[in-house]
Amino acid sequence: MRRRMTAALAGAAAACLLWSVPGAAAARPAYGPSAPGPLYAQVKDRDTRLQLQVLGRPDGRDMLYRISGFVYVDAPGDTLAPALRHGTRLFGFEGYNVRRLYREPGTNRLYQLSREIVFYTDPQDPARVLREWRNPLDGRTYPLVPVNNDDVDFGPFPITPEFRLGPLKDVQRTLAQVSDIPPRTDLKALTGDDFGLPGGIYTAWEMFDFYLGKREAARRAHGVPKGAMEVTSSWTRSSPFIPSMCIADRDVRARLTFHARSWTLDSWDELEPWLKAEVQRDHPLYRKAPEAPARSETSWTSFYRKQLDNGALTWAEWCAKNGR
User: Fold this and answer.
1) Comparing C-alpha atoms, which of 172, 164, 247, 152 is closest to residue 215?
2) What would the pLDDT profile of 257-301 be if each residue is shown by its tens digit?
3) How far is CA 122 from the centre of its chain?
4) Alpha carbons 199 and 90: distance in angstroms, whole number
5) CB 65, CB 17: distance < 8 Å
6) How many angstroms separate the CA atoms of 179 and 236, rounded?
7) Paired strand residues for 239
8) Up-side HSE of residue 291: CA atoms within 13 Å toward CB?
């Protein structure tokens, strides 16, 4: 459902991955010690103020990015054919990121705090969550673990009146924020497990385009707006096969391509009933954003912590144990 580099934080912050009609500006609201509003109000640069609203609501309440897309096989030379052909649409990709802006009390340090839960679904019926997947390369069926990352945080950003995140791009009737991120994580050094990756090193691409209408931008450029700004985004990821598919990257010349779009929702209540029911039943933690900063997870480190029990099992042992 992240892999951050310090030099990329300012550009990537509006990305992660990676939304509804907001209310009017607040009139002299009362703020708690972790509320972002007083820090947000200091920022002079319009584009930075808007990009902070891409990250979260200035009023400090939760907002969501609803995520919807598909996952494909990318196999140069069709190297896995006929078992797994290039361009195969493997899964739907349905879920959300729930987030909020958080001020470290007593400081000018601002964070974006989030959790993300995204399910792998039937590509013909995106509202039907898949619980398992048959790997056609080895003929075994494995549990299909959703993206369930707690936390996915950015920051801290030291907010001053002169703080800047860089200019937005003018694209006809919209303004765009672009973040192209090449994550690299030495999972072998971090966890002791190589996950079947060459040298135990995870590499990927995460490419985000966030769009906000100029009318919406003008409406929310002043004061401390309530609610979520209307934002849409496009996201593409190229990465190794996810851990629960039990395909070793070092043994194949193929990867996954994720392509999805996202849009803001003002609260968790605005999700579709099927998605809310899925989360309430099995993942209730993901109804709300975190309360304070913590170490961020990726799909791989989350799998290590929750499926491998922090190294009690190796990835290879998990695949051997769970495949049937």
Assistant:
1) 172
2) 999 999 999 999 999 999 999 999 999 999 999 999 999 999 999
3) 20
4) 27
5) yes
6) 11
7) 256
8) 1
